[in-house]
Amino acid sequence: MKKRIFSGLLLGFISIAAMAQVSNTLSPYSQFGLGVLSEQSQGFNHGMSGLAIGMRNGKIVNVQNPASYSAVDSLTMIFDVGVSGQITNFQEANRKKNAKTAHFDYAVASFRLLPKIGFAFGVVPYSNIGYNYYSAAYNDLNLSATGAGSSYYNDVFEGNGGFSQAFVGFGWELFKDFSFGANFSYFWGKYDKTITIANSDSYVNTLTKSYSTSVNSYKLDFGVQYQTAVSKNDVLTVGATLGVGHSLNGEAKLVTSNYNSVTGLASTSRDSVPDAFRLPFSFGVGASLVHNKRLTVGLDYQMQKWASIDYPVQTSNVTLEHNQGYQLVSGQLRDRHKVTLGTDWVPNPMGRKYLGHVHYRFGVSYATPYYNVNGVKGPRELTVSAGFGIPLVNSWNNRSTLNISAQWVNKTADNLIKENSFRLNIGLTFNERWFAKWKVD
């Protein structure tokens, strides 16, 4: 039976990987860089705004710091899956619009591979791309008030895609209280972005620019954790993570089409930029303090070095090598900094009352943008989260948990579109004693 369940879950992971390219965002900001970056958190820390680097617990799969895998015990098999849905309000000047999205988020698993070595695998998102909006203006500014006798044009912007990673990882307790871990990921994804410039004047051509890429590469992440008792009732865990920056070997493609509605003739040109995308070097540090096995408080800091990465842009500098002026340009991206504060409280984990075993979580994070918008700094991101970890108790299972959390995400910047999102996350952690040996007297 366990082999059948394991095989079914493995097939489920493969299905999730196939669905990973379905975008769960409608943000116009997802057109920049590699899209809207995923928090990469699971059910246990969604309610803490993604707090992870110093989190260490044998009942969770903490993908963000692989050193934590060594905490899983020798009897346990953990499966964790999650879905999310969100409502977003977009505001520009006095105009407002709402949008709804839903998505299957992640699937991860972990178990003890060897003494002091934990193993994990799964599929998690890296970024999402999805948007559809337009801007309109009159060509004749003197007649724009009435529109009489003037022509107008629409710029339509559409895009979809995203990037994901399927990983295997291990955490090894090298010596007492100190662990090292690594995630080895297959990194893949694609995007298709289109800009269509249409004019009400039939004598003016319709111009379409189609940008696309497809990436298949790898991703390497490392982590360490050290845990120590600072008092009789307090345990401190400090951790650090490092992500290796490297080229993704993806080719950026541009197809430009010009259509004349009078003659019915169309012209098409193609351009490309080889080796156009890179993953940034990243690092993070964090710590968590567990008091009396009931209250956990933690703080994380993360930084991604995007500013040193050039990004493919169509410029006005037409060269012989790039007939459309499509080339790598510096200054499009900027370093991203993120600070997260979170807490988890269990009223009475050793008591007999059900409510005493429920996890109550709260978190807040602040992140700077990693891209520029028309030469100016993009929107900063403020996230406030709260959630519950509800034990599932019946005659055969008292270790699994239903994790429910809500997040409010605010993105704002001067003279740019403002976004307010309400996100609901649901995760289910199956914590099974698959490797226990039963004795009959």
Word description of this protein:
This protein is mainly β. Helices cover 5% and strands 57% of the residues. It has two helices and 23 strands. It has helices at 2-19, 43-46, and strands at 36-37, 77-92, 95-114, 117-138, 152-175, 178-199, 206-229, 234-243, 246-247, 252-259, 266-273, 278-279, 282-291, 295-304, 311-314, 326-329, 336-345, 359-367, 372-373, 376-377, 380-391, 401-412, 418-432. The strands form four sheets. A 14-stranded antiparallel β-barrel has the order 2-3-4-5-6-7-8-13-14-17-18-21-22-23. A hairpin with a 4-residue loop joins strand 7 and strand 8.
Query: What is the averaged pLDDT score?
Result: 86
The biggest beta sheet, please? 14 strands, antiparallel, barrel
In what order do the strands lie side by side in the largest sheet?
Answer: 2-3-4-5-6-7-8-13-14-17-18-21-22-23
Oligomer: single chain
Q: Which consecutive residue ranges, at least 5 long each, have pLDDT under 50? A: 143-148, 317-323
Tally of helical runs: 2
Number of strands: 23
Portion of residues within helices: under 10%
Calculate Rg over CA atoms: 25 Å
SSE pattern: HEHEEEEEEEEEEEEEEEEEEEEEE
Topology, element by element:
Blueprint: H1 2-19, E1 36-37, H2 43-46, E2 77-92, E3 95-114, E4 117-138, E5 152-175, E6 178-199, E7 206-229, E8 234-243, E9 246-247, E10 252-259, E11 266-273, E12 278-279, E13 282-291, E14 295-304, E15 311-314, E16 326-329, E17 336-345, E18 359-367, E19 372-373, E20 376-377, E21 380-391, E22 401-412, E23 418-432
Antiparallel strand pairs: 1-4, 2-3, 2-23, 3-4, 4-5, 5-6, 6-7, 7-8, 7-10, 8-13, 9-12, 10-11, 13-14, 14-17, 15-16, 17-18, 18-21, 19-20, 21-22, 22-23
